[in-house]
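Figure 6 in text form: structure in, sequence out.
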């Protein structure tokens, strides 16, 4: 048994990382310390004042473990890695896991290229970015290709010169075909260097070139070509304006501000590269209840820069953060040269920080409203349904449907909604095994019996403690079953549950003559519902989803059965040739009307097999009918 008092005495006065566990051995908090002995002991000192969140965390600690490191920087890195791996409940968590695109210029090649990539490596290439959106990076590459004819192929030049025909870009005049030796290395390099200047923000020469080309094309009455140059020039001007928003003397820096409310916070980041503001992005953090703004920023900075490949020279934050010196040392090691963590106090930098804060606050307000609306249509809608039924504590709803055509290939579907949202990982399909013909009641009885018997068997195999923690869809029983129908369907479900000794409330979604939901059938009575309410809309979504899932499954089985019943009955056509025919012709109708020569075009089809298919589909109707009846 873990004795916390005894284990506290054994803690070393060394840097490291500590992990707090609850009774189920789940990691609920990860932290770092200069001295593990001093830091961990503080949590268990009654005189120490802590936030309500930390107090709640302490109340759940059952035991702890620790990892010693050589330095506090190593502890910081390890702390980030463990937080990302275990996602502890009481750590402030960065919800977004974004990666940013770069443009890689392969300047070491004889005929260099511009490549879109997601990480910055230590190689001989030159990197531009990070860009705040994939579209921005791809547009920049496309612009350089159209204006300076930068090649897009992966050929190794000049080794592969003349080995293959030039690509489409050559024919549409967007590549000079260095693969054919049409342009020398020196001339290609001059153009490529101009493309690099474009990526670095030098737009003056580009605009001048495009202006001249547009005017020349217009004079030659080549108006479509002139329009293309005009559009390109407008694109370049838009990028130029966007990147001249601010100028900080060519320094790479990130400007970071925060806005927080309740358990949610938004951090806004402005990305300044070579003195120009190239973009911005925002990030959500949860579990911030009781945290100050500087603590939120500290958590963000550590988690964000642990996951991004680019480290700027300056990280400007809205508030002083506690571990700024340590973070500077860590980021300097990652970048390879000095990184500063600063708080702007005046001038243009402070004004930009204020703008970042306003953006963060605006996003937080908008997202809070969005979250509120989403809760109304999900969890709020479930509460409304529970209110109509007079029950409580419902988080998981299951609904069932049967699909068949005159009893052919009868199937059942089970859909699950948790907190008002579909949980597709728990959806299940059933092929009806014991019922012949179109008997929906008997089919539903089979589906429900199989579903809950399976769940009971799994619970028995796992044992009570284990099945409570399992994520299996059958071991978890619903808090409410919503049948797509009235009295008959509800009673079938209640009979199955009673026979298995289960107490789960069941209601039916009753429709009118026009197949529109009009009310709920519950406890042998029908109750009206508000048709404009969120509860009604949730019921409609559940009905639509269970219908869709059942129909799609039935359609897939029916389609497979139709293909099998026709093609597999043809002499000489086995599974391989059947697949080859369907892959080649796509539709059964095209196979039916194909000639022998056309059938032989499909893979693995020889003349004998093709003639067998051709003759099969041209048998007399009576002969084919008698064959199918005899099956």
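Output sequence:
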């Amino acid at each position: 048994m873990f004795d916390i008092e005894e284990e506290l005495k054994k803690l070393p006065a060394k840097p490291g990382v500590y992990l707090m566990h609850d009774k189920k051995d789940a990691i609920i908090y990860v932290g770092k310390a200069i001295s593990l002995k001093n830091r961990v002991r503080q949590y268990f000192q009654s005189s120490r004042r802590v936030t309500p969140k930390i107090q709640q965390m302490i109340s759940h600690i059952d035991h702890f473990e620790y990892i010693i490191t050589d330095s506090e920087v190593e502890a910081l890195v390890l702390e980030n890695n463990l937080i990302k791996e275990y996602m502890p409940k009481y750590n402030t968590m960065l919800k977004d896991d974004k990666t940013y695109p770069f443009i890689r210029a392969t300047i070491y090649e004889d005929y260099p290229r511009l490549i879109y990539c997601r990480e910055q490596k230590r190689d001989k290439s030159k990197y531009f970015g990070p860009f705040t959106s994939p579209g921005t990076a791809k547009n920049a590459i496309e612009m350089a290709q159209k204006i300076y004819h930068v090649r897009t192929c992966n050929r190794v030049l000049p080794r592969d010169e003349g080995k293959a025909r030039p690509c489409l870009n050559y024919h549409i005049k967007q590549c000079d075909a260095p693969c054919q030796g049409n342009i020398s290395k020196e001339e290609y390099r001059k153009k490529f260097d101009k493309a690099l200047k474009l990526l670095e923000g030098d737009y003056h020469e580009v605009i001048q070139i495009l202006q001249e080309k547009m005017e020349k094309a217009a004079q030659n009455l080549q108006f479509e070509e002139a329009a293309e140059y005009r559009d390109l020039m407008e694109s370049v001007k838009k990028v130029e304006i966007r990147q001249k928003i601010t100028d900080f003397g060519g320094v790479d820096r990130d400007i970071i501000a925060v806005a927080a409310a309740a358990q949610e916070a938004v951090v806004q980041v402005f990305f300044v590269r070579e003195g120009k503001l190239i973009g911005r992005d925002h990030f959500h953090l949860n579990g911030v209840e009781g945290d100050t703004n500087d603590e939120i920023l500290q958590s963000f900075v550590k988690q964000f820069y642990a996951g991004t490949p680019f480290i700027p020279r300056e990280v400007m934050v809205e508030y002083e953060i506690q571990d700024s010196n340590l973070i500077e040392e860590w980021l300097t090691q990652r970048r390879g040269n000095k990184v500063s963590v600063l708080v702007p106090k005046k001038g243009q930098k402070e004004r930009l920080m204020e703008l970042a804060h306003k953006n963060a606050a605006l996003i937080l307000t908008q997202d809070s409203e969005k979250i509120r609306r989403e809760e109304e249509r999900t969890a709020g809608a479930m509460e409304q349904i529970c209110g109509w039924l007079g029950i409580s504590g419902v988080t998981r709803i299951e609904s069932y449907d049967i699909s068949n055509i005159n009893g052919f290939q009868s199937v059942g579907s089970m859909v699950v909604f948790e907190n008002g949202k579909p949980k597709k990982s728990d959806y299940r399909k059933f092929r009806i095994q014991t019922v012949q013909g179109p008997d929906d009641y008997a089919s539903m009885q089979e589906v429900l019996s199989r579903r809950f018997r399976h769940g009971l068997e799994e619970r028995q195999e796992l044992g009570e403690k284990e099945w409570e923690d399992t994520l299996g869809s059958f071991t978890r029983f619903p808090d409410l079953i919503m049948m797509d129908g009235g009295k008959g369907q509800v009673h079938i479900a209640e009979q199955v549950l009673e026979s298995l000794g289960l107490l789960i409330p069941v209601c039916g979604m009753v429709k009118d003559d026009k197949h529109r939901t009009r009310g709920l059938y519950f406890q042998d009575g029908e109750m009206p519902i508000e048709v404009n309410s969120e509860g009604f809309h949730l019921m409609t979504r559940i009905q639509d989803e269970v219908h869709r899932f059942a129909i799609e499954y039935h359609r897939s089985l029916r389609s497979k059965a139709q293909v099998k019943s026709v093609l597999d009955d043809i002499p000489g056509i086995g599974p391989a040739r059947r697949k080859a025919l369907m892959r080649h012709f796509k539709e059964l109708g095209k196979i039916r009307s194909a000639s022998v020569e056309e059938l032989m075009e499909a893979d693995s089809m020889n003349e004998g097999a093709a003639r067998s298919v051709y003759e099969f589909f041209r048998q007399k109707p009576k002969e084919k009918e008698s064959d199918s009846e005899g099956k």
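Caption detail: The chain has a mean pLDDT of 84.
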